[in-house]
Amino acid sequence: MVQLPTWAALAPALALGVTALALLLIDSVDPDTTNTGLLGGVSVAGSLVSLAFAVWFIFGGTGIPQSEGGQGVATLFNGQLVVDQMALFFMIIVASVTALVTLASTDYVREHAYQAEFYALVLLSASGMAILSAANSLATAFVAFELVSLPSYALVAILKDNRGSVEAGLKYFLIGAVSSAVFAYGISLVYAATGVLRFDAIAAAIDSGTVQTVADGSIQAQSAQVPASILGVGILMVLGGIAFKMAAVPFHFWAPEAYEGSPAPVAAFLSSASKAAGFVLAFRAFAVAFPVGALTASGDVISWFVVFQILAIVTMFVGNFAAATQEKVKRMMAYSSVGHAGYVLIGLAALSASGDGMAFSMSAGMAHLLVYGFMNTGAFLFIALAEYWGVGRRFEDYNGLGRQAPLACAAMTIFLFSLAGLPIGGGFFSKFYLFSATLNVGAWTLAASLVINSALSLFYYSRVVKAMWVEEPTGERSIDSYPTGLYTAIVAAAVVTVLLIPGFGTVSDLAMRAAELL
Asked: Which InterPro entries does UniProt cross-reference here (predicted)?
């Protein structure tokens, strides 16, 4: 294996950031350029380079200790950033979704202004997600969190002549500002209680019960005691800030509005990559910084795994029941995304009081996020294709679409049935993995909730499939163009979703190794 400098471990994130800067440079040279092929090609190339680096590093042993034959964990900026197997796993998700979204957008934004800005904002947000995957401190996590959020606000409102887009962007911005404030205040309380912000140092403070300091990379104990009540409130506020990014109940209100009002590729990006970024921060923070054993040993600090169990069950039921009552396909998919946040929360909720089975349950959540990234992104990109054709937003508007666009509708069928958990794509195995994680620790309530909500989701997903293949069209519909970029992205996502059936073993092995090493 080629020995690279330590900073090169951030190559997946740097590739995304450099590509965004290159797009801004191209736009500054020719501000009026509408060369969609050039802008889209640069964006897709940058995303694929980021994906190639992440795949190379994760299979090359980066993040695996040298004693186990790996390249070791890359630690940067005095431990503020850590590139390990978990960071690389989520960088793969982010880069994959970004590549699909930028490829599909070459057709979707062809007639819109601000094309270079659109691609640059997507890649800047994606670079923030990649950095967030490696964040090992609440300080760096907050900065990366904002780098993810600020471009997202502009992306939702990018259609400045569309009132729905502008309104969605404003609502998203206002709720996001409140969430950031809550997150920042929670960080300040954790710092006030422990004296440190680095995850491993926070864990040392909680474990020893004494305030810590970090000097020259080493953790040193102080004589002051950690105030458990302040720490508990701080943890809950940090959880609230992260739950906003995950679109978990009751912090999900922004998601349906933002997804429905924004361009469909942006909705795909936010519901897949942005959700993954929120979960990687949750996995890292609540596995390293706030260890379950130390927290449950103190009667003054709330048992956070109980909070996650409640959060997972409520999010599953609220998301799926709300989706079942929608009459617009895009809004249905938005609430479906909320329900899937509940499924992934099982990765943190399926724990015993001692933390047994933690790696198994966390790897199940990680594996589901990777599969979800392809099938959910593909579903939203199909909606983008329907919008491109001028198809309406309601279920009946999709009637008979399968006869005019059989390939795209077949891909959409794969996405929806895989999201429901049928054995037509990788979604079946990822949900079964989550189900096994609940049984592993005897979390019967979580297991029952997962089964009930999966059955409910099949009902509303089937409405779209029935409309496309069974129902008769309600009026005349003319489809005279088949956009190459959108079609390629949709078919690619469908192919990967199907290939994840035989390839799920590799995904689960990578996720398990990452969780165990964490």
From this structure: NADH-Q_OxRdtase_suN/2 (IPR010096), ND/Mrp_TM (IPR001750)
| The residue count for the chain | 518
User: Phi, psi (5° rounding) for residue 493?
Assistant: -65, -40
| Cβ within 8 Å of residue 299, ≥6 positions away | none
With CA atoms as reference, report the closest residue to 102 among 403, 486, 479: 486
Phi, psi of 162, rounded to the nearest 5 degrees? -105, 115
In the predicted structure, residue 132 carries a pLDDT above the cut 90: yes
260's tokens: 């429905």
Amino acid at 470: V
Q: What is the DSSP letter of 473?
A: P
Task: List C-alpha distances in Å: 62 to 90, 91, 367, 513.
Answer: 14, 13, 19, 12
- Report DSSP letters for 119-146, one per residue: HHHHHHHHHHHHHHHHB-BHHHHHHHHH
Cβ 316 vs Cβ 450: under 8 Å = yes
pLDDT at 33: 65
Q: How many CB atoms lie within 10 A of CB 471?
A: 16
pLDDT, tens only, 156-189: 988 887 788 888 888 889 888 998 999 999 999 9
Provide the pLDDT confidence category of residue 494 given band limits of 50, 70 and 90: very high
Query: What separation, in Å, do the N-terminal and C-terminal C-alpha atoms of the chain show?
Result: 23
Q: What is the DSSP string of 178-245?
A: HHHHHHHHHHHHHHHHHS--BHHHHHHHHHHTEEEEEETTEEEEEEEEP-HHHHHHHHHHHHHHHHHH
Scored b (16 or more CB within 10 A) or e, 256-295 reads bbbbbbbbbbbbbbbbbbbbbbbbbbbbbbbbbbbbbebb
Separate counts of helices (H) and strands (E) for the chain? 20, 4
Per the CB < 8 A criterion, the answer to whether 93 and 273 are in contact is yes
Asked whether the beta carbons of 397 and 495 are under 8 A apart, the reply is no
What CA–CA distances, in Å, run from 36 to 73, 200, 268, 371? 39, 46, 20, 29
Q: What is the DSSP letter of 109?
A: T
Assess contact for 310 and 442: CB atoms under 8 A.
Answer: no
302 vs 307: CA distance, rounded Å:
8
Residue 142 CB partners (closer than 8 Å, separation 6+): 180, 183, 184, 187
Tokens, residue 138: 């609440």
Residue with tokens 């997507």: 122
Tokens of 166: 């502008």
Closest CA to 133 of 21, 53, 194, 211: 53
Nearest Cα to 46, choosing from 94, 5, 1, 89? 94
